[in-house]
Amino acid sequence: MIHPLADCKISILESTTIWQFSVILEGAEVGENCNINAHCLVEGGVKIGNNVTLKCGVYLWDGTVVEDNVFIGPNATFCNDRYPRSKHQVPHKTLRIGRGASIGARAVILDGVTIGENAMIGAGSVVTKDVPAGELWVGNPARFVRKLKKRINDIE
């Protein structure tokens, strides 16, 4: 379902929902059974896997890869330039969020970072470097807290 107030420039599978005031640009890839909440932006060079949830206010820039079963909390921020200047060309670095990862509300993820499979980023954290698979990171800058136990209900 695509809400009539969404601006979606690509074909979306029937099992995926795009809510009002969201923009999906031409060239983006969005998998099945996704839920893209209100006020989201997905640029044309973004790849989103299956069973992904983007809560309200998430903007994904060119070069972002979101693998299957990822949760991205409200207003999580993804940066595409560590040294921004007006009117200069940004060389996009790939930002990857691994399968089954969860990113808390208002977390900030810098460009070129990889969040590993089943990793979890705490709300409000600022991630400046790669996060290994299966780890919980929190804080500013985000730091390792502990290894996570595999969840029983993980989708295989």
Task: Write up this protein.
The chain is an all-beta fold and 156 residues long. It has one domain (1-156): Hexapeptide repeat proteins (UDP N-Acetylglucosamine Acyltransferase, domain 1), CATH 2.160.10. 0% of the residues lie in helices and 30% in strands. It is built from no helices and 20 strands.
CATH topology descriptor: UDP N-Acetylglucosamine Acyltransferase, domain 1
The N- to C-terminal Cα distance equals: 25 Å
The SS-based structural class is mainly beta
Oligomer: single chain
Radius of gyration: 15 Å
Key traits:
156 residues, globular, mainly beta, UDP N-Acetylglucosamine Acyltransferase, domain 1, 5-stranded parallel beta sheet
What's the layout of helices and strands?
Elements lengths: L6 E2 L8 E2 L4 E2 L4 E2 L4 E2 L4 E2 L4 E2 L4 E2 L4 E2 L3 E3 L4 E2 L4 E2 L16 E3 L4 E2 L4 E2 L4 E2 L4 E2 L4 E2 L7 E4 L4 E5 L9
Parallel strand pairs: 1-3, 2-5, 3-6, 4-7, 5-8, 6-9, 7-10, 8-11, 10-13, 11-14, 12-15, 13-16, 14-17, 15-18, 17-19
Antiparallel strand pairs: 19-20
